[in-house]
Amino acid sequence: MLIVSFVIGPFSENCYVLAHEEGGDAVIVDPGMGCVEPLQQALTAHHLRPAGMVFTHGHIDHVGGAREVSELHEIPSYCPVDDRHLLSEPMEGLADFALPLVMNHYGTTHLTEPETVVDVMPDTHHEVAGFDLEFIHAPGHTPGCSMIRFVDEEHGPIIFSGDVLFAGAIGRTDLPGGDPNAMTSSLRDVVWPLPDATHVLPGHGGSTQMGYEKKVNPYLQL
């Protein structure tokens, strides 16, 4: 298995590329603002063929490069259905402080969706590039917020936690569409039951492991 990650954009978001091996098909996870150049470098360096993009949620720092990537590679995008509107209207999920960043990058606040968008229903599986990806619905940061889980034979369960869970922290709930009560429920009913051995690859910051977070993350002491 191969996982490549790089930090992009004004929000320092983690974009990931997942493949079974060098030279194989790849999944692009959360292709946010500013992802295109480093993504192309990663694909070239590892001789990868992109097969699809998957989004943990619809915020622009996680999906803002998807349209350009879809045009370059003609691949589908898998988006949680409750966040799909954010692909074209990003400010509906952002605070006013983000307006200059969006305008400076795109010249508009009204964007065009990627060419092919697959609506991901809560708690469903989708096969992309040979991976069985489970989209685990965990609202609170956004209505459609999800964690994307798969199991590797060698490394065990791995989850792209997006902006649900970070190392020592969680995603904010004070943006439009955020819901503190929903986040509390997600942490208690969805995040906490994850096996301790689960490797956590978040949308911002460094990676962690579920068992460690249960011990030290103050937001998991429910």
Protein topology:
Elements: E1 2-8, E2 13-19, E3 25-29, H1 36-45, E4 49-54, H2 60-63, H3 66-73, E5 77-80, H4 99-106, E6 117-120, E7 124-128, E8 131-137, E9 146-152, E10 156-162, E11 165-166, E12 169-170, H5 180-191, E13 199-202, E14 208-209, H6 210-216
Parallel strand pairs: 3-4, 4-5, 5-6, 10-13
Antiparallel strand pairs: 1-2, 2-3, 7-8, 8-9, 9-10, 11-12, 13-14
Pfam family, one: Lactamase_B
Cofactor: Zn(2+)
GO molecular function: hydrolase activity; metal ion binding
Give the count of structural domains. 1
Number of strands: 14
Largest beta-sheet details? 6 strands, mixed
Can you tell me the CATH superfamily? Ribonuclease Z/Hydroxyacylglutathione hydrolase-like
CATH architecture: 4-Layer Sandwich
Structural class: alpha/beta
What is the end-to-end distance?
34 Å
Task: Count up the helices.
Answer: 6
Average pLDDT confidence is: 97
The CATH topology turns out to be: Metallo-beta-lactamase, Chain A
CATH class: Alpha Beta
Unreliable spans: none
Rg: 16 Å
Strand residue percentage? 25-35%
* Helix/strand order: EEEHEHHEHEEEEEEEHEEH
Strand order of the largest sheet: 1-2-3-4-5-6
What is the helix fraction of residues, given as a range? 10-25%
Shape: globular
Describe the 3D structure:
This protein is about 20% helix and about 30% strand. The chain is built from six helices and 14 strands. The chain has helices spanning about 35-45, 60-65, 65-75, 100-105, 180-190, 210-215, and strands at about 1-10, 15-20, 25-30, 50-55, 75-80, 115-120, 125-130, 130-135, 145-150, 155-160, 165, 170, 200, 210. The model has no long low-confidence stretch (mean pLDDT about 95). The protein is an alpha/beta fold and about 220 residues long. The termini are far apart.
